Automatic annotation (TrEMBL):
Reaction catalyzed: tRNA(Trp) + L-tryptophan + ATP = L-tryptophyl-tRNA(Trp) + AMP + diphosphate + H(+)
Keywords: Aminoacyl-tRNA synthetase, ATP-binding, Cytoplasm, Ligase, Nucleotide-binding, Protein biosynthesis
Amino-acid positions noted as binding L-tryptophan in the UniProt annotation, renumbered to this chain: D133
EC number(s) stated in the UniProt entry for this protein: 6.1.1.2
GO MF annotation: an example: ATP binding
Quaternary context: Homodimer.
Name recorded for this polypeptide: Tryptophan--tRNA ligase
Any single Gene Ontology cellular-component annotation: cytosol
Residue ranges annotated as motif 'KMSKS' region: 203-207
Residue positions binding ATP: Q9, P10, T11, G17, N18, G145, E146, D147, V194, K203, M204, S205, K206, S207
Length: 340
C-alpha cells in the first residue's frame, strides 16, 4: 500500500512556505493516497513553549489543515502526543541510529546556535522522533519542503539499518524482509524552498523577527497585498527564460510563488510576464495570492471559535492513527525480543 505521512510543528503562525512547500502537496496527494497529517506537538517542545500558547497553536494548525482543504473524514488529522507509539518507537530507533549520524544534521546546528551545550536533548534527538513518526505507520511517501531533505535521508538510513540488524528476527516472525519500507521524500514543484520577502537569500520562516518577511495563512487581503507590494525586488525587468532568474534570488522567489500558487512552472509564468516590470507582476501576484489565500484565512478565523469541533477532529484522528500504529508497534516489540 501507498501511505502518505507528513507533519507540521505547532509553533506559531503558518506561512506561505509551509503552504507551498507542504500543505499544497498534502491536498493533491489525498486524491490518490491514504494520508496521515500530523500536528507534531512533541517536536514543538524541543524548544521552550508556553503551555497556553502551545494549546492554541495546536488548535490553530488543525484549523489550518481543515481550512486548506484536507478531508478530515477520509484522511487522518491528529496530534502526535495522543498516539503513544511515536515516543515509544522513537526510543527503539534511538538505539538503532548512531550518534555520528545525528552529528551531521545541519538543522540542529542552526537551531542550537552558538550555545549548543545548552540545547535540549530533545532538539538533538528531533530527527529520530521524525523517523519514528513516519515508520510507525510504514509510510511510503513524505511530502515536505527542501529543508527536511536531510531528515528524510536519515529516516531511510534508520529504516534500512533496522531491517538489516534484525533481519533474522524479522524473518523468524514471518514479516517481509523490508519490515520498514524506505520512505520516499516528495520534494518537488516551483516552491520547495520559499524565501523571505525581505531577503531572497534567507528562508521564509516562523522565527524571522520581521512579519513583512512572510505571508501568514491568517493574513487578510490588506496585509497580503501590502507585504507583496513591499517585497524586495531588483531593478531589472523580468526575464523571458528561467535561466535569467539565476543570481536574482528575489525575482526567482516571487516567480516561484506565483507558479506554485497557480499550479504552473516558472517557465510558464515567464511566458506571460517575461520582459515586463515588477509592478505589473506584483499586481497580478497580489490578485492571485488574495484569491487563493483569502478564503483560507477567513475559514481559519471561523474555525477559531469552534474549539470543541477541532478537539473532536483530533480525538477521532488519533483513534484511527492508533489503530494503524498498534500492530506495527507490537511487531517491533516481537522483533526486538520484548515479552508482551
Ligand atoms: P516545519 O513545521 O518546520 O515545517 C512544516 C513544513 O513546511 C515546510 N517549509 C517550507 N517549505 C518551503 N519553503 C519554506 N520556507 C518552508 N518552511 C517550512 C517544511 O519543509 C515542512 O514540510 N520536521 C518537520 C515536521 C515533521 C515531519 C515529520 C515532517 C515532524 N515529523 C514527519 C514530515 C514527516 C518540520 O519541522 O516542519
Amino acid at each position: 500500500v501507498n501511505r502518505v505521512f507528513s507533519g507540521i510543528q505547532p509553533t506559531g503562525h503558518l506561512h506561505l512556505g509551509n503552504y507551498l512547500g507542504a500543505i499544497i502537496k498534502f491536498i493533491e496527494l489525498q486524491k490518490t493516497h491514504d494520508c496521515l497529517y500530523c500536528v507534531v506537538d512533541l517536536h514543538a517542545i524541543t524548544v521552550a513553549q508556553n503551555p497556553d500558547e502551545l494549546r492554541a497553536h495546536i488548535r490553530e494548525l488543525t484549523a489550518a489543515y481543515i481550512a486548506c482543504g484536507i478531508d478530515y473524514e477520509k484522511q487522518i488529522i491528529f496530534n502526535q502526543s495522543q498516539v503513544s507509539g511515536h515516543a515509544e518507537l522513537a526510543w527503539v530507533l534511538n538505539c538503532v541510529a548512531r550518534v555520528g549520524w545525528l552529528n551531521r544534521m545541519t538543522q540542529f546546528k542552526e537551531k542550537a546556535g552558538k550555545d549548543r551545550e545548552n540545547a535540549s536533548v530533545g532538539l538533538y534527538d528531533y530527527p529520530i522522533l521524525m523517523a519514528a513518526d513516519i515508520l510507525l505507520y510504514k509510510a511510503t511517501h513524505v511530502p515536505v519542503g527542501e529543508d527536511q531533505k536531510q531528515h528524510l535521508e536519515l529516516a531511510r538510513d534508520i529504516a534500512q539499518k533496522f531491517n538489516l540488524d534484525f533481519a533474522s528476527a524479522i524473518a523468524a516472525h514471518g514479516f517481509e524482509d523490508a519490515f520498514f519500507p524506505l520512505p520516499e521524500p516528495l520534494i518537488q514543484g516551483p516552491a520547495q524552498r520559499v524565501m523571505s520577502l525581505r531577503d531572497g537569500t534567507k528562508k521564509m520562516s516562523k522565527s524571522d523577527p520581521s512579519d513583512n518577511s512572510r505571508i501568514n495563512l491568517s493574513d487578510d487581503a490588506e496585509a497580503i497585498a501590502q507585504k507583496i507590494r513591499k517585497a524586495k525586488t531588483d531593478p531589472e525587468a523580468l526575464p523571458s527564460e528561467v535561466e535569467g532568474l539565476a543570481k536574482r534570488p528575489e525575482a526567482e522567489n516571487l516567480v516561484g510563488i506565483y507558479a506554485a500558487l497557480i499550479g504552473e512552472t516558472k517557465a510558464d509564468v515567464l511566458k506571460t510576464f517575461g520582459g515586463g516590470n515588477f509592478s505589473t507582476f506584483k499586481t497580478a501576484l497580489v490578485d492571485l495570492a488574495v484569491d487563493k489565500l483569502g478564503p483560507i484565512g477567513a475559514e481559519m478565523k471561523r474555525l477559531k471559535a469552534e474549539t470543541a469541533f477541532i478537539d473532536q477532529v483530533l480525538v477521532n484522528g488519533a483513534t484511527r492513527a492508533r489503530a494503524l500504529a498498534e500492530p506495527h508497534m507490537a511487531a517491533v516489540k516481537d522483533i526486538m525480543g520484548f515479552v508482551r
